[in-house]
Every structure is written in C-alpha cells, then in structure tokens.
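Reminder to self: tokens first, then the designed residues, so the page reads top to bottom the way the pipeline ran.
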C-alpha cells in the first residue's frame, strides 16, 4: 500500500494529520463535557447526536491510521474514547441489548382490549396538509395526538378530526400547539403548562373497557437551543411522569420529547414513573430529520407502564413534516 504522502505530498499530509487530530480532540472534549451534570444547551445537545457522532468518529478513526506517526496515536486514542462513550450511552437501544418488555400478539387473551394510537409532529410551518391527513386516514388510529398545531392546521385537518367523537384543540401561533382526538370513551382531559407558559402537556383519562381506565400523556417540551437551556425542559419531562391528574397505574406516553431516550432526563422520567420503552433491545427507531433518519435522532417517544402491553409499534414513512409519525397498537 502506498503511503498518503505519495498522493498528497508531505505538506498536505501534515495539514491533513493535524486536522484529523484537531477534530478528534474537539469531539473528545464535547463527549466528555456531555457527561457533566449541566443543563446548558450546548452540553445537553450532544445527547441528541451521539449516534451520528459515533459514525463520524469511526470514519475518522479509519482515516487516522494513515496520518503521520506523531499525530496518529493521539488521534486514534481520542476517537476510540469518543466511540466508546457514545456506544456505551446508546447501547440499551441497540439490537444487541436485552429487551425491556415483550411485544407480541395478545389477540387470544380475552381479558384484554386492544386499540391503536398515533402521534404526529406536523411542523407548524409545514403546509402539506393533505399528506398528513392521508396518513392519518390510512392508519385510522383510535387515539391521535398532534403537535405544533396552530389554528391553520386545525382548520385544514377538520375533516379528519370530525371522525373522532372526542377532540381537544389547544392552538398555539408558534410551535407548541396540541390536538388530542379519541374514539375511545374519554372521562376527562387536561391541558397543563407544567413549566413554560407556552409548552403545554396533554393528559387524558381513557376507558378502553369500563373496568380499567388508562391515562394518556402527550408531551412536547422545548429543545436545547441557543438561549434555551434545558432546566425547564427537564422539569417538564419529569413532571409529566409525576403530575398525572388521576395517578393511574396504567398509562401511555407519546410525543416529541425533543430529547433522546438515552439522556439523563428521559432515563429519570422512566425511573420516576416506572415506564417501559419498547425500543430497548430493539433499536433506536429515529424519527428526525424525516428524510435522513439514518442519522439516528429518536426524538419522538413511546412508553407504557402498568398493565398496558404493546402488540406492535412502528415509525411511519415520511408525511411532509420534519418528523416521522409513531404508530402503536396497545392491549390493556
């Protein structure tokens, strides 16, 4: 094999070696800082990109074997640590880890009642109403939870929403409006602003069967962005697990958490509320960005607790939004 200097020249290979080492060190600093117990947005944002960061570091690691001898050991060690930490954090959501809950056919269990639910972040600036409407009509869920719905979205989805006997709308002019619709009997609904004034959480008490109600939680907090540290977002997520109106033992949560399942916040949500995630031991099931989900951003969550079982779940094809919808069949 010919050395890279044969193609690039000594000056260029030196620049290339320094560039690889510099990027490796920056990635290492970022991944080490991300382990700190901080709610600064730039620290918490690293959680969102652990999977693509691991892929990128692996590509750089292969390139690092061909750089100059002086930079090579440091670059390889730094990149190996980056990959190791990110894989360690993501590991529970790989197909190699043990599953957290069983998924299967409960149709033969006569004591169970089954129903479907679908969550969709429509993207408030999106105007592709027909694609969203068509996907909802095709899946025909018993429970529908929509996010980023302003009044224009509510108006344009009126024909779809009219097929549900129970509809709650909470329009917001920006990106945090909600719509909840159900064909199941609804005992009550609450739209609660746990933290931010304009980022509500939806609580609904459903009765798939008269004997055993189920609580549905729909959540869409703010993401970690410049100027938006995650202290209030984290409280919003954790409060959603604690402050359910009826404190029912059986519950479902769906929605765009603007957080990934392996973050400290979502892990705390799970532990505090006793939630189970069907993706554990099966994969990350990314939902964002909709057109390049191989990047691995599973921002849209689905969890259950109590006697709620999941018969099947999936991330749906693109529908015009920047998020893909999540669809599941539950048995209770």
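Designed residues (332 positions):
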């Amino acid at each position: 094999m010919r050395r890279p200097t044969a193609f690039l020249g000594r000056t260029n290979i030196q620049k290339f070696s320094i560039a690889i080492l510099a990027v490796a060190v920056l990635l290492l600093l970022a991944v080490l800082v991300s382990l700190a117990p901080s709610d600064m947005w730039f620290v918490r944002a690293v959680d969102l990109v652990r999977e693509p960061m691991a892929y990128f570091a692996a590509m750089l690691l292969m390139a690092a074997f061909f750089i100059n001898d002086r930079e090579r050991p440091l670059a390889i060690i730094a990149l190996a640590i980056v990959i190791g930490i990110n894989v360690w954090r993501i590991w529970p959501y790989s197909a190699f880890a043990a599953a957290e809950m069983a998924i299967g056919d409960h149709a033969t269990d006569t004591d169970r009642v089954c129903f479907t639910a679908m969550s969709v972040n429509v993207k408030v600036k999106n105007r592709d109403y027909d694609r969203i409407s068509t996907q909802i009509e095709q899946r025909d869920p018993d429970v529908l939870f929509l996010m980023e719905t302003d009044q224009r979205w509510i108006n344009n989805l009126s024909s779809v929403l009219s097929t549900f006997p129970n509809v709650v709308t909470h329009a917001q002019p920006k990106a945090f409006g909600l719509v909840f619709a159900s064909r199941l009997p609804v005992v009550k609904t609450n739209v609660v602003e746990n933290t931010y004034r304009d980022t509500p959480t939806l609580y609904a008490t459903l009765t798939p069967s008269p004997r055993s109600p189920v609580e549905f939680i729909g959540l869409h907090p703010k993401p970690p962005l410049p100027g938006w540290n995650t202290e209030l977002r984290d409280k919003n997520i954790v409060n959603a697990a604690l402050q359910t109106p009826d404190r029912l033992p059986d519950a479902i949560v769906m929605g765009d958490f603007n957080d990934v399942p392996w973050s400290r916040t979502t892990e705390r949500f799970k532990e505090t509320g006793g939630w189970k995630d069907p993706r554990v031991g099966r994969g990350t099931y990314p939902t964002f960005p909709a057109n390049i989900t191989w990047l691995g951003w599973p921002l849209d969550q689905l969890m259950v607790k109590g006697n709620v079982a999941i018969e099947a779940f999936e991330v749906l094809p693109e529908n015009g939004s920047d998020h893909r919808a999540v669809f599941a069949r539950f048995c209770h």
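The longest strand covers residues 201-209.
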